[in-house]
Amino acid sequence: MDDQFTLRRADILDSNALFQLRQKTFQETYVEDFSIPLSKKDIDDYFHSSASSENFAKKIVGPKQAVWVIENKSNAELAGYASVGPCNNIPHPDVRPNEDALVSAIYIQRDRRNHGFGQQLMNVVLCWSEEHYPEGSIWLGVLFKNFKAQKFYAHYGFNKVGEFDYPIGEGKLHTFIMKRQ
User: Fold this and answer.
1) Which of 13, 32, 78, 119 has an alpha carbon within 20 to 30 A of 147's alpha carbon?
2) Structural domains of the chain in order of their starting residue, each with its CATH number
3) pLDDT for 67-79, tens place per residue?
4) What is the pTM of this model?
């Protein structure tokens, strides 16, 4: 990782910056990169319900949950983040709620991609998950047409085991379910 950036555990003061980063990376990834047809209302509803700064605050302080950020040392801007916690909302029959971990996000700003930040975040997420969910599997969801992310996750031992439609307001994101033993 570039010396200008640092990987650290998020704290409660990061909640608003994480919310803004999530909005930016969502727009870059789903709307711009993959042209997913979501209405502004669907996106706004999503951010005010399940991706709000209050939700980030809960993840940061919640038990058996963690959030990490990649921060620019010179201006404190967040370049990326990852979050992990209990796997309670992946619709797959093999999920063991509260025994398995869910990598709920690894997002990097478009202009900060390909600098090793994703690898740094994945490594810390996997180590943390193995420590806090030692008997469990690790799960994640990935957009069906995000082949680069699927390849990245496969490199870390994740395999596709199913799929579902993730609701975003009235819209849906067709998502592959991936699992790591």
Assistant:
1) 78
2) 5-135 (3.40.630.30)
3) 999 999 999 999 9
4) 0.93
